[in-house]
Every structure is written in structure tokens, then in C-alpha cells.
Amino acid sequence: MVTKIEPSEKTEIKKVDTLLNTELLNLLNQSYEKKSFDSLNLFFDKWKTESKKIEPKINDSLTSNLYQIFYEIYHPFELEKYGWMKREHFKEYKYAIPPSSLPYTFGTKIDTLKEFYPKNNFPNASVLNSIPEFENALTDFISKGKFERDDFLSKTLLMPITYRKADFKTSPEINFISINKEMNKAKAEIRLISTGLELNLSKTKGKWNVDEIKELWIE
User: Which residues neighbour 110 within 8 Å (Cβ) at sequence distance 6 or greater?
Assistant: First the structure.
């Protein structure tokens, strides 16, 4: 039996969401005005708490393999895994905001894995999954003064280098993942800071590994 939500109930839900978004935005603004990183961390800690309540839905082998490939190619704090120089100061960052969806091709099928909630196990940082109220508040906050507010956030959050109006997803950006029908070969194209990379992977004994990394372009 499906419970019908009455229009009055929908209005109340919308009011609650609006109030939460306003509360979170106020917390960010107050943090910025006071230059208080304790308050800023409170915002992200609230986000972390809510993220822990989300469980990824992995109901088939394709989805499982896409998650596994993502974990193998997404290393925002260990650039040496892409053949780059190690950034020692990256271990100071406490949070990572991964993508909320994953574009992919499977054989001839082109699709996007939506409601993507990865749970990377970083040594020093926590994953903040996509939650609209937090993302909306952060978007509104950045849009009031991108460069100054990006600089403030970057003391805690590894901000992407981009001129897009309000971008806070932690690099690298996943452009797409292409996986063969046998699900033992894959290719991923990513944007790492300002460089395009192609990663070729293979699956051996149930584990995905990166076999080759190619540089495609530099902005």
C-alpha cells in the first residue's frame, strides 16, 4: 500500500527543507564573517554525520564494478598514484566531496549511475555524500563571492581549481567510465586539477587495477 502525501504535508516538508537550508547557510556566513574555522568545521561535521546514514544501493554486478573502478581511480589526496609529485600538505584536509553521479558506457549502452554514494576510506579525511540541503547552502555561500569564499573554504576543504560559478566537488572529476561486456576491461577519463588523464584498467582475480595512465590535455 502506497501512502499518499497530501498537498498540505508536501508544503510542510518543503518548509522544513527551506528552514534547514537557511540554518546551514547562516552557519557558513557566520563562519566566514568571524573567520571561525570551528564554526566551519561544525557545518562539515553535520554533513559528515548525515552522510554516514546513507547506504549505497549496489543491486547488480555492473553497479558493483562501477563502484570498484571508482575506488581504484579516485585518489584526491594521493596524487602520486597518478604519477604526480606527492603533496604532503594534502593530508591536512579533513573532507572530500565526491561526485553524486557517475557517467558510464557499458558495451553500446550510454548511461549515468545516479544516486551515487561512494564510501572511500581515506586515512585523514571523511567523505561527504550528496545531500541537497548541504550542497544548496554551500552553493549559495560560494555564489556571494567565489574567490574570497573559495579561499576561506580551502583551509579545510580541498577546493577544485575552476572558474565555474560554484564548484566544490573534490578533484579529480570523473568524465566517464567505459567498461566492456565481460566486465574485465575498463577505461576512465578524468580531470585532475587542470589536466585530462586516461586510465586503462583490467580485472584480475576479482580486483580492478590501473594498468596505464595517459595524459590527454592540460588547461
Answer: 104
Alpha-carbon distance 81 to 130, whole Å? 25
pLDDT single digits (tens) 179-196: 999 999 999 999 998 899
Number of domains in the chain: 1
Q: Rounded CA gap, 69 and 1, in Å?
A: 38
CA 191, 132, 33: angle at the middle one, nearest 5?
85
Does any domain span residue 2?
A: no
Beta-sheet strands, E only, within the chain: 95-96, 102-106, 109-113, 126-127, 173-179, 185-192, 195-204, 207-218
| pTM (predicted TM-score) | 0.86
Asked, for residue 172, whether it belongs to a domain, the answer is yes
Q: Which domain holds residue 52?
A: 7-218
Which 8-state DSSP code applies to residue 176?
E
DSSP for 183-209, please give it: SSEEEEEEEETTEEEEEEEEEETTEEE
